[in-house]
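Slides due. Your pick:
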Amino acid sequence: MSQCYLCPGNPRAAGDTNPKYENTFAFVNDYSAVKEQQPEYERTEGSTEDLEASLLKAEGVKGVCYVLTFSPKHHLTLADMSANETLPVIDHWTRIYANHLAASNPLKELVVKVNLSVSKEDAPTPKDEYRYMQIFENKGAAMGCSNPHPHCQVWTTSSMPEEPGKEMVAMATYRKEHGGRHLLADYVKLELAKAERVVWENETFVVICPWWAVWPFEVIIIPKRHVRCLLDFTDAERLHFAEAIQEVTRRYDNLFECSFPYSSGIHQAPLKGTQEEIDNSYLHMHFYPPLLRSATVRKFLVGYELMAEPQRDITPEQATVRLRNCGGELYRKSLS
C-alpha cells in the first residue's frame, strides 16, 4: 500500500526508505522502547531508614528494538502463508539471534554450522552485547497492533525480562530435582501420552492447549526433543516449526472465521549466560489469544481475575477439541 511504512520501497516515520525486499526485512524500530545509548540511571543512595532508597528501586535497561516484516505483501498474515513461505521468517529470527549472541556464549560455535537463507549481513548486528532477546508478534487491533502489514518485533535488552526469567528458574529447579531431566521434555511426554490437550503434532513439534492455560484457546508449541534455541534446529526442524506456526494461526482464523488476534512469543536460551543457563533452557512458543465466544466477544482479565486470580471460561480440553476441528483449508479461501 502506498501509505504503509512497512511495504517495500515506502518511506518510514524517521525518514528512511525501505528496500524493495522480496521476503523479509528487519530494521531498528523508529519508536524503540529501549535504546543502545541512553543516560545511566542514577540510583538513590541513602541509609536503611531512607524510605525512598528502601522501597523505590529501579534499574536502567539498554537494548535495541527491531521490526521484522514477514512478507512484502501487505494483505497477508501468517495464517495465509504456507510453511515454505514462513520459513524465511524463521531463518531471519535465527540469524538475528545468532548476530546478537555474546562472545562468551557457548552457542557461538553453532553459528558457522547453520545453513540459513538470510546472511549475517542481511540481519541487524548490535554495537553492544545484551542479556536476552524477545521475539514476539502482536496481531490485530485488539492486541494493540497499529499496522496490519504482517510483522513482528524483536527486542534485545541488557536485563533478563520477568516472564522468561521465571521460566528459567523453574526449569533449572526441576532439572536439579529430577536427575537432569527437562521440565518441558517431561511435560511433552505426559501430554502425548494423555492426548487430551494435543491439538496437532508433526515429527518434531507438538501444539498443546496447556494444562495451566489462562487465555481461551491459548496454545504452546514445544519441540519433542530438547532444543535450547533457534540455532539448535536442523534444516528439517525449521520447516517443521514453520508448519506448526501455520497450523496454529490457520486454526485460529478458522475458529470464528475472522483474522484472529493474538500475542505470540518465543522463549529460548539467553544471549549472554552460563553453560548451565544455556543447557537448562528449552525453546518454546506461546500464543495468547483474547477471543472467547465469537469474533467480537473477548475475554477481559478484570474484577476477581485482576485482583485475585484468573478464572477459566473454557477448559484447555474444550479448547483443544475446538481447535482440532478447525483444521483444513483457511476459511477465506473458499469465499473468494
